[in-house]
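=== RUN LOG ===
request id: a7f3
mode: sequence -> structure
chains: 1
length: 267
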Amino acid sequence: MIKTIIKGFLIGAAKVIPGFSGSLLAMIFGVYEQTLNIIVNIRKITLKQLLFLFNLGFGIILGIVLFSMLVKFLLAKLYFPVMLLFIGMIISSVKVLFNETKNYLITFKGTSISLISIILVLGLDFIKSDSLITVNNYLYFPLGIVEALTTLIPGISGTSIYMIFDVYDVVLDFYANIFNVNNFINVIYFGLGLITGIYLVSKIILFFLEKYRLAVLTMIFGFMVGAIAILLKDTLLVNFNIWDVTMGLFLLLLGYKMVNHIFKLNA
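=== RESULT ===
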């Protein structure tokens, strides 16, 4: 039980880190497909499976809330070095995906899939417009759907997509205040979007992972490479000094080593 809660906590923490995928970590921890199969066959759920989902979900929510507060504070105080820490973590995740897909990547199909994925992510960043996003209660429904999609598809970071469309701060504030009574309506809209997204795509995702696993992982590899480029570009556009650079390079390496160690422990 405690082990499941700890895994959930780390997955939840990963979900609020820009560019890092909680679902990829869930896959590494060996709980991703187990959870997805329970969701797909929810009508046949057992007491043991229900307890597993409760413990995992409790850990995820705890990780999301606590790390949202921490990330919000750190980004406000140390934006440049903290973003480099996140980028280092993403690079380590990309390396894991590369090692798993490298033989497929060198084929024409694999190269095409990864390039299209990279272009798609960069294109979304290019066409984004602040005028397209209106922050109100109804915004939380599509944000919930995005959260569902990026939770179900391992490797795709919801936070990266939020950053591309300039709503990351909105989501981070939402997570940090999720238990605030004044946030109740937003939680309802977000929850409805989350449930809708999970219901619509869980079976589809499971099918493609079973039938076209390498192609899916290659697509995810491309998404994450594109996310690194966008996050690096946005980070370098802010004001920084030599202290930020020194600290940032140290944290970049630390983030890389830290995630690499997590993957090795669960290999």
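=== NOTES ===
The chain has a mean pLDDT of 82.
The first helix runs from residue 2 to 15.
=== END ===
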